[in-house]
């Protein structure tokens, strides 16, 4: 028996929609195609979730936006699955065209120390305890592998891509507080395969990449993304004096992050200030107009350069060993 309960083909500026059963109390709504990753689809997901929040449907309890999906929890004693699908179909028709979508979006500025000793320790533990022959571990780090896999000229080229773009938090998931970031400038796109098998330990604050998404680890955990640096804590389960937020999770879906480079000693000092309650995170409330992204990505010079970099990445990937 198929889990798919309904589909809607793409039309005008709206993506194709697939509705799947997700147990007795939820519906998984998938938008567009799995590949390639499309920020436009993610903007549509966020616009849908926001519109449903402001135009509630009786019986719909909770929404969980993903990269290209929306998990909708509902009370089956109040509303049936078919009625949820009907309500969503109607709602999708009310979403404005992409150039008119404006989403709530804060801007956050975070420091990053590239190739820090704590991240190298995590990589080296993996080499010693799990996989001595891992092709993604090069001289105790993942950075040189990321550089090679993306066809970059060197480490500085990788760092420039991280620093040159704002990073859109497409969704928070896998576990609580883990942001998955995509660059708003297509020229900053980077990709990397995951570890195989996963690490058993990743430091809190590690910045890593898997597939096209950059993540920031909110807690110590296992992990399978390639680590390239470390930043400040992005979760605070015990709120401190002068805390930067009421919510214990710093990075919310739809936030934009820009990174700036610091030395490891500078980062350690900033982290100490966070733990002592003496640090104010740089957070600017605001909105993001999707038209801004469309203008940037459709600029001929940007499009040509982005495609050239994708071609370099495809060629490099053919020569790289996959973990």
UniProtKB/TrEMBL annotation:
Record-linked InterPro entries: CT_C_D, Cyclophilin-like_dom_sf, PxpB
Coiled coil location: none
MF annotations from Gene Ontology: ATP binding; hydrolase activity
Residue span(s) of domain Carboxyltransferase: 17-251
Keywords: ATP-binding, Hydrolase, Nucleotide-binding
Pfam families assigned: CT_C_D
Domain of life of the native organism: Bacteria
Residue intervals passing through the bilayer: none
Keyword ATP-binding on entry: yes
Keyword Nucleotide-binding in annotation: yes
Protein's UniProt name: Allophanate hydrolase subunit 1
